[in-house]
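Consider the following assembly input.
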Amino acid sequence: MNREVRVRFAPSPTGALHIGGVRTALYNYLLARQLGGKMLLRIEDTDQTRFVPGAEQYIFDSLDWLGIKIDEGVREGGPHAPYRQSERKPMYRQYADRLVAEGNAYYAFDTNDELTAMRERLVAANVPNQQYNAVTRMQMRNSLTLSEAQTQELIASGTPYVIRLKVPRKEEIRLHDLIRGWVMVHSSTVDDKVLLKSDGMPTYHLANVVDDHLMAITHVIRGEEWLPSAPLHVLLYRFLGWEATMPQFAHLPLLLNPDGNGKLSKRFGEKYGFPVFPLNWNGIDAETGNPVQVQGFREAGYLPDALLNFLALQGWNPGTEQELFTMDELIAAFSIERVGKAGTRFDIEKAKWFNQQYLRTRPDAELAVQVLAELGAKGIACTPEKAEKIVRVMKERATFPTELWSEATYFFEAPTSYEEAVVQSKWNPEAARLIGAFNEALAAVEPFTADAIKATLNEVLQKHGVKIGKVLQALRLTVTGVGHGPDLMQIMEVLGKEETTRRIARALNTLKA
Ligand code: GLU
């Protein structure tokens, strides 16, 4: 029987959602949509000590901004509600109890001091991994070393305890990963992980496996940092008798810092001036409790569809040269098999390139609304028609929407000064003479369009046997005050004949070669 494909994004609300997490959500989403399945959002908040207020809302806001739609989750509800693990607390206990009853888990009463002492003993004995495992468990205070009566007495008297998984002593644990193939782990390297904490809360491992089973998850697509936990999860599926419906695993390679060193970090982003989180956020750090501020891709001017297109290709490749994909195209083309095994260096220049491409496809009228609002806030009057023309001129060169208005002041104000370096290198009597002739010729240009202006300029230059490169920058200077910018003929068209000729005349006067 073919099961309905069900995937989940299962973040912990411990801070701003990292862009790597966004990519994980995206890959889950693409697979769900491609296979006509469901995408779940489960909030894994069992670690109360790392809970950060606002982090859950940040996850929702990020997914909303990006247009990653969730079928079942905390906000959407669904047949397996609640989707917040802290609200599912009573459900987990029975599974831990069952594992104990069937001899696959045990009660452990060790205090923190006793655990520390154990680790110190192992360090002193040069044991490389100080684990609570098949060997060391026999020297500790747990239901395997204590009698049944002692155990029951301790529990009855309210002694704090945890429930630990009884990892088999010698066994090759095999698991199949859709990206890595078969992964083999020897059980002697796996810890007897805590499944249920002394406050009755499940740990990540127990809650994750129980929920994936109860929620009928078919594919677990998550970051590579969870690969070491996967053998433990395989054991849990087996001990709980759920092997037949165990999800398929796909552990995604890490997003690395651009220099290839380590997981993409906030620190690295700050150093080189790029965001590693989707949205701005002022929150607190789960580890230190100190305030943290993060910069978002959204606020830095990235467009959501551009960011998604970029992220899709940071780890997955379509096997063709195609780079620009609509969401529907991504859904059709995506495959887990084409996700690489090696970590991906985060390529912010590529992200900018995608943004530029997507910005160009935005309708002028839509961007003009934004431009009008920004100009309005600066107290600059502008008509919608002019704003649209400005957008048309600026769009081709811009990477971020802000560039549409931040560099557009010369559309509203005649230059009051001229870029000195350009004056030095490009302004000379010949240029002045030619520009003067051109300005006179402009009087007859009707209608005043970029093409007609260009034709006039070419005529004047031809008559004098001069190439356009000789005067273009100087001419730009007279109109905008600076030596670079978008197509000058288009700028002149937007300014209109009167304003253009006035500016040129004024510059000729001021700059007197
Ligand atoms: N709660 C884990 C996280 O924060 C989920 C890992 C998983 O998907 O199993 O990434």
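The radius of gyration is 32 Å. Ask yourself how this observation constrains the way the partners meet.
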